[in-house]
């Protein structure tokens, strides 16, 4: 079992891409160092999913040129529905092209940063060097992280200074409408001490087929007493091989809340890990998944307790239809010394057809005595008694199933912080389960 | 007037025969009560009429104005005018009570003729007031975390909102304290009228103190063994079931025993 990782791109290609994007020099070095590591690093090993036949490396083009938008009104209709007219703080990336950005004067005055990742390497080099692939996701974790670092071709940098509370959500739209495009996006969200922010990102494919790679990494940092709400709805087209890694690192008494709608039509490896480093910090990790067709997906949700009195809650609900299969790994890990920590998780999978497969895999790894932990997991079909109940009121079987499915996914959907995004997720679910 | 007619109904669950030839005719405008000790097939009758997936009708007929009910899907039975207030209503996460009821009402109406939100809310509010239910019950998830009494009230709320021709109330009184029992009875009595027929299944007479039945039937061993008027319920309250068993020569009234 070997993985072909013959890189199509050379060091020279990477350097010239970096120069094209007008990045800081240190970034070019960072990329070439990473590229040198790709070859020798092993592939990641998602629990219970064999990925040796998955193709994570071939793609038609490293970056494609797409149009920019002078105003949000120029966005395609599907994108407009998500964004809403009065969204003041938003970044739009069109395939690989930074296409639109807007940040209110008020937030700018407070020192809030919202910018594309290339610009960040120049204008916010210190912050980038501190947070970009250092304490969060490391370049040499495995082949795909190194590949990501070398080929990074998009993404966004968000920084909220000390004591700043951003009331309105910041929105980021990754619009994908070029089948040749690959997405090596990197997102960094930093909430400095006593600050708070809600960040919502959408991955939206408006083409049915993709030929590229989606290798996405997001890193979220909350310093002392800060709070980040991170919402995401991923709707990437079939044909991508998707690796998406969202990671959080918490400082003392800080909190990260995740609400993820994982609605890709591609084969997907999704990894969402929060390290509760600071004492008294907490994380709430909610995700919903719908699989269809012959999609294969693996979702790992993990909270690692390092600090004292840390609190972690994982909730994951998924619906599998047709011949889709998915693995749900839920991991609560309490390190030695993380006394009085609490690790709770719940994973539920609903299967809508005979051929659908789901595997909920709850894991608690506890290396400390004075802690509390709990898990619940279930894999099942729609309860015939629930259907009987709903149908006995005159509701058709199809509508009854629809109600049960939406209800099943509601605990996460209702958590998404932007109304338009919530509505979009509901509609995507509607479309996918029909 | 509409008529629900049950003829020689035989029903099995997991291969075991529970109903052994039930005959019963209910017209709109009438309230029938089926009484009997536990394990005599009362709830099976209720579930079989509505089409519960676990119960298999092996012979006999159920018709509504001559239409074969047993041929209908569960939702079609409801559309035809049947309603079952369940003993153990399902809990459905993520679906609010109000959304569910609106879906149920709209399922009965043509597309484009959905009930207006205002009208729906007005009606829901007024029925909830009759049943002395907290307003927040409308926005809570369907039956989730409801107490036993709240679930029963919620069944009657649905009955009042959906206005079926025939309702089967399966032990709607079980687990209710006297105040709740009065409230639930008030709701049912409000439905009473020419267009509404009702089959109340209970093993306590006390519910019938608040809802006077027109007919009372006693079930034993999977059959209706005795029928009468409201006075039969009184008689049962005073003397229990033993005299009936004696009269009919029944030793064990539960299903599976033969006279």
UniProtKB/TrEMBL annotation, chain A:
Domain of life of the organism in this record? Answer: Bacteria
Which part of the chain is the SUF system FeS cluster assembly SufBD core domain? 176-408
Provide a GO biological process annotation.
iron-sulfur cluster assembly
Domain called SUF system FeS cluster assembly SufBD N-terminal: residue spans:
25-172
The record ties this protein, via Pfam families, to: SUFBD_core (PF01458), SufBD_N (PF19295)
What protein name does the entry list?
FeS cluster assembly protein SufD
SUPFAM superfamilies in the record, alphabetically? Stabilizer of iron transporter SufD
The record's comment on protein family reads: Belongs to the iron-sulfur cluster assembly SufBD family.
Q: To which species is this protein native?
A: Sporosarcina luteola
Automatic annotation (TrEMBL), chain B:
Annotated InterPro entries: AAA+_ATPase, ABC_transporter-like_ATP-bd, ABC_transporter-like_CS, FeS-cluster_ATPase_SufC, P-loop_NTPase
**CDD domains reported in the protein's UniProt record:** ABC_FeS_Assembly
Q: Does the keyword ATP-binding belong to this entry?
A: yes
Query: Which N-terminal stretch is annotated as signal sequence?
Result: none
Membrane-crossing segments per the record: none
Keyword terms of this UniProt record? ATP-binding, Nucleotide-binding
PROSITE patterns cross-referenced by the UniProt entry: ABC_TRANSPORTER_1, ABC_TRANSPORTER_2
Q: Does the keyword Protein biosynthesis apply?
A: no
Question: What sequence ranges are listed for the domain ABC transporter?
Answer: 4-246
Superkingdom: Bacteria
GO function terms (MF aspect):
ATP binding; ATP hydrolysis activity
Hey, which family's this protein in? Belongs to the ABC transporter superfamily. Ycf16 family.
Q: What is this protein called?
A: Vegetative protein 296
Q: Which organism is it from?
A: Sporosarcina luteola
Name the gene behind this protein.
Answer: sufC
